[in-house]
Design goal:
By secondary structure, the chain is an alpha/beta fold. The protein has 11 helices and 9 strands. The radius of gyration is 19 Å and the shape is globular.
Length: about 325
């Protein structure tokens, strides 16, 4: 997508079909949401999907706050996305607990490009403490998913994720990687996001633009929120129940945030000045800007290692 197109069309649309979740993750603000629990209405969901047909959309993710499989209509909604947006990549996120064998089999019909499973640990005690669910059931689901007979038919790519907390040991990280390798899926370890300072994370706030400026994040009530870190929609760009989504993307509020971050002023606009989301957004920049912020992002990743294997802070510096 060209620089000018980034200002006119989002590269990705995330749709929160539900903000209900079956887990109570200690590192996620979902359990403390103040905006109430909603499944997105059929009319709003269909309207968003139809509007996405008006432009070339790179990817769509039916997920923000909440577990997609807590949405009782998620399967027909995935089918609608696949049928009406066949050229758009469908990415699906889940914690895997409700990804039953029957649902895994059904996913084979929907052309999922990338399935991400947030496993986070293979330790049953930590899993119960941090996630609030039974690891045994999740592991049964994932073994069924990863069976060589079906995994490539379920999604073109499958990645199991570990959110690396400030206490996650190297032993836990290595056990997670071994499990992923045995299952024949990709593994990904990532550090904690701080949700605008509401979740404790050792990772500092970057100065380079983040990747949310050229995407749309739509909550279950229709509010187009600033990003996935704005879980309450306090810094909304607009309301998809009242305005076309492209008008919202091109609107004054979105343009203000885009201009500030793309010009290197992330630390001068709220709440971005409090947020440590570290995935760089360089797609909407001119070549000289990409070079400048690319170097800054590279240095951040070398110095702070927000992804990959890393010893917990409590064990660093020990002799």
């Amino acid at each position: 997508m060209k620089h000018s197109d980034r200002k006119l069309f989002p590269r990705l649309v995330a749709i929160e079909t539900t903000n209900y979740c079956n887990a109570k993750c200690v590192f996620c603000p979902n359990a403390l949401l103040k905006r109430g629990r909603h499944h997105m209405t059929d009319a709003l969901f269909e309207s968003i999907v139809e509007q996405c047909r008006e432009f070339r959309l790179g990817a769509i993710e039916p997920f923000l706050q909440g577990e997609p499989f807590s949405d009782p209509k998620i399967m027909p909604r995935l089918e609608m996305i696949h049928r009406r947006l066949p050229a758009t990549k469908l990415r699906l996120y889940t914690n895997g607990y409700a990804l039953t064998p029957a649902r895994t089999d059904a996913l084979m019909e929907f052309g999922v490009d990338h399935l991400y499973v947030s496993l986070n640990t293979t330790d049953p005690v930590r899993y119960r403490a941090d996630i609030g669910l039974d690891l045994g059931r999740t592991m049964e689901n994932l073994r069924y998913l990863a069976d060589p007979k079906r995994r490539e038919r379920v999604a073109r790519n499958i990645t199991f994720r570990m959110l690396r907390s400030n206490e996650t040991t190297l032993r836990e990280q290595d056990a997670f990687v071994r499990f992923c390798k045995e299952a024949g899926v990709r593994h990904f370890i990532v550090g904690l996001f701080n949700y605008k300072g509401e979740v404790q994370s050792e990772l500092p706030i970057p100065g380079f633009p983040c990747e949310h400026m050229d995407r749309l994040d739509i909550l279950s009530n229709g509010i187009v929120t600033l990003c996935c870190m704005d879980q309450e929609g306090e810094f909304a760009w607009g309301d998809a129940t009242k305005e076309p989504i492209l008008d919202i993307y091109r609107g004054a509020v979105a343009r203000k945030y885009r201009q500030m971050l793309w010009s290197g002023k992330r630390r001068h606009i709220h709440p971005c000045d409090t947020c440590n989301l570290f995935w760089p957004g360089l797609g909407g920049l001119r070549p000289w800007q990409k070079a400048r912020f690319g170097v800054a992002a590279g240095w951040y990743f070398v110095r702070h290692r927000p992804s990959g294997r890393k010893a917990p802070a409590s064990s660093r510096g020990r002799k």
